Amino acid sequence: MKSIYTIKTAVGGLKAHKSRSxxxxxxxxIGITAIIVIMAVGQGAxxxxxxxMRGFGSQIVSVQAGRAPQGVSDIAQMxxxxxxxxxxxxxxxxxxxxxxxxxxxxxxxITYGNESKRATxxxxxxxIMEILGLSVEQGSFFTEDDIRQNASVVxxxxxxxxxxxxxxxxxxxxxxxKGKTFRIIGVLEPKGQMMGFNLDDMVLVPYxxxxxxxxxxxxxxxxxxxQAESEEIVPHLVREIEFTLRELHGITDPDKDDFYVMTQxxxxxxxxxxxxxxxxxxxxxxxxxxxxxxxxxxxxxxxxVTERTREIGLRKALGATEKDIMxxxxxxxxxxxxxxxIVGITFGATFSFLVAFVLNKTVASGWSFAFPISAVVLGxxxxxxxxxxxxxxxxxxxxxxxxxxxxxxx
Length: 410
Description:
By secondary structure, the chain is of the alpha+beta class. The protein has helices at 2-15, 18-24, 26-54, 85-92, 127-132, 144-148, 158-165, 207-215, 234-249, 264-307, 309-317, 322-362, 373-399, 403-408, and strands at 60-65, 97-102, 104-112, 115-124, 136-139, 153-156, 174-177, 180-188, 193-194, 197-198, 202-206, 224-228, 259-263. Helix 1 (2-15) crosses helix 12 (322-362), helix 3 crosses helix 12 and helix 10 runs parallel beside helix 13. The two termini are 32 Å apart.
């Protein structure tokens, strides 16, 4: 009964100053809303990327140049030229390897007559069609013969076809890339965005042609993709790839590898870790507003203690203990922050839904609304903790007032 009376007293104290109570919790509402939006958007991004990676197939193994990045200092190691044609030839001979597709990447301008357009030019082999889930809508894809002969042929994305050629026929036409003339042999079906890349705005060329005529390099700046014959042999295949490349590169100490091998599971784990770290960092920034909101609550509670000094004295004169007074003011502080937390969660869920809707329509189709339950638990928990921490000092000040001096207070 005593606890119920204390809660009623705390609620009554807040109702007596409704406007001040609403303004007090604004900082908490903003902080919780920011945290919820960051967590929901982060979860949505992670879900989208992981869903797209699952579409690559669990038989895919990626070989990248440089040391596997463990931190910022390793970024420069990711751009070495350690993967070359001899590596591709060796990987093709490993038992259990079905297909091998090296990758060469560049951003450049393509020209047709007076039309110019920036596009992603990607040099690869036919496996890239399977990896990215592409289909040729018109014409055909380049062949192994085109790769061997460094053929000047391209397959263009649907957006490039529409922007440059409109309703006109594109197959057989010639475009220029870095001054070199290429013949269009195929147009891809619309695919949309994947992993942040617009696949409809892409030009595919044989990788040997991209190396020789577009970049003038002999290595593969986008690594080598290997397709295993079955999912079961992937772990064994990874070991074989590492062994083969170490022999070719004359490496005896695995710590000095100038390449790293990733399976689909490795890549998904890395992406999950990166998005979790980013979400935590952004959440920490948003948490600053919670601290500001908590300081605001402490100030308002101190003002409230001063204004209600006679009330405190009267309660103590009627038998209330220091603990009763302290609990009452702590409850007022926590009720304010928990209400702020609930409102913040509601606003956060609403904004997150709108963000997911807009991103799905504009930037990345397949982006779905994600609202982790952990965000609700975290929001309420953080709000209650802020109320407890920043309400402790005012509550202590109220509980230690002398009843006689409090009743004399004007």
